[in-house]
Amino acid sequence: MTRILHILDHSLPLHSGYTFRTRAILRAQQALGWEVRGLTGQRHSASGPAVETVDGLTFFRTPLARRGGPPLVRELREVADLAHAMEGVIRSWRPDIIHAHSPVLNAMAAQRVARKHGIPMLYEIRAFWEDAAVSNGTAKEGGLQYRLTHWLETRAVKRADAVAVICEGLKGDLVTRGVDPAKIIVSPNGVDMDMFGDPVPPDAALRAKLGLEDAEVIGFIGSFYDYEGLDDLIAAMPMLVAARPKAKLLLVGGGPMEAALRTQAEGSSARDAICFVGRVPHEEVEQYYALTDILAYPRKAQRLTELVTPLKPLEAMAQGRLVAASSVGGHRELIEDGVTGTLFAPDDPAAIAGALAGMLADRAGWDARRATAKAFVKRERNWAVNVSRYQPVYHILLEKGVRPHRAD
Fold this sequence. Notes:
Layout: E1 3-8, H1 17-31, E2 35-40, E3 51-54, E4 57-61, H2 73-93, E5 97-101, H3 104-117, E6 121-125, H4 129-135, H5 144-159, E7 162-165, H6 168-176, E8 184-186, H7 193-196, H8 204-209, E9 216-223, H9 230-243, E10 247-254, H10 258-266, E11 274-278, H11 285-289, E12 294-297, H12 303-307, H13 312-318, E13 322-326, H14 329-332, E14 342-344, H15 349-360, H16 366-380, H17 383-386, H18 390-400
Helix pairs in contact: 2-3, 3-5, 4-5, 9-15
């Protein structure tokens, strides 16, 4: 039985798009009969034992060394500590393949250990670390840190035995860096249909509690980062309410922009139509999907959003919800305008209001669009199907690589 060790930034029990994708991959691989384990680095912030089982998945943890230091020195220490932890897992568990997931620090540690032990390694990129840093405000595009991280990423990709990316945008970028396209597979974001494919009915009591009775509900469920464009969505609400007086905006989640967004909403003429719920337990998320008519994703136009596909629109489609999103590259890979969803110009509150008002006015087409979108997810973005993309790559790596000796 093939053993796969996944090297991760963080994992369950933390909740994020990153951990949900990891859970989906590992669970689907287990269903195929593979043995899987995860090893998290020092950025996994949840307390817990050195070996932890969550949702039937086993994770090893890198001990927290709690060593500070200036940038670069700190990151090099993270790489060294993760590599040391990896050595211990390899000695005790003997994996056949190392599957390292971004950020690039994980790939650097994994490549060091994989080469030493003759284990083939696949590097999976979910987003380029340098672009994520720009979006989070911790780096400047074109700055020294950005250029260094870009160089490290390119170096790691070229040294990996195989590369996986979550979308065509990332693949295209790597090809422009001189990476052989034959070395790259696309393993797109997907949905666990066992979890999201059977939506719950609306909760009348919750609807009343939130003041959404007889409302046309626009929803956003996720993290409040600047690049998500929620400020544009709030700015669109006065125009939308003018066209559709029953329209209300339901914001579920939290993040760095929450305080600023609440302040913006309080100063809006449509403040009575904007409802902040805050963060909710993951097991309750479906209840909020059930209250919405349209899920809106107004991501801003920038390098990260042009290259990377998000997970949330797929979950919304699986839940049978209508989807409206900005026409950035990451959304265009997921949504066919007028067929599985509606696309509008990014960074444009008036375009958002116009698109949403048009959708709310066209109820006759809702059922057909919901069915088409859900069928698309089930057919092309279901993890039970997506995970099979790894199988031929793993097979090639095992045929080419030097498999470690295992007593069992």
